Amino acid sequence: MTASNTGSAASGSTGSPSGARRSETTRNAILTAARERFAADGYERATIRAIAKDAHIDPSMVMRYFGNKDGLFAAAVALDLRLPDLVAVGRDEVGRALVGHFLALWEENEELTAMLRVGATNQAGAERMQGIFRDQLLPVALQVCPDPEQVPARAALCASQLLGLALTRYVLRLPPAVALAREEIMAWLAPTVQRYLTAPSP
Q: For the whole prediction, is pTM greater than 0.85?
């Protein structure tokens, strides 16, 4: 069950408009406390107990609405990838621009790494990652893909490279992936992302 469905079930169980309003107020209080706690402590150090204390509720209420910390994190955190405008980048440089941008993001944004970890194991996290792909990556890919009908497939192939790098380098921390210098990653990955976005269909 996703975070939103969980919240809806909790709201629906109240049986009255006033109960539904109280339920929504409680859910919003949890989300507000969670956003502040995740921002202050990071994903790993933030606890359900601390978030519940900040929201002035019992920890069991957090579990009731969101199931676990992964579900709460997926519901609470909104990620803006701040993707570059590829129209402003030379067509032959879009692969390098995207790879460089994502490297900077992964290295600066703990929440993005946490979301990848959550998305691999939690339905709500997976749905959030799918939404980010749909709403943020697809429009950027559309700017440079030669065939609009191929945009979803080409963007998905780009995501496979970028998320694969993040998984091996920042989540699993495979030593050879961690040891790669930034320019080495750019040299290996940028031409592949460039081909996925701009090359003629095979």
A: no
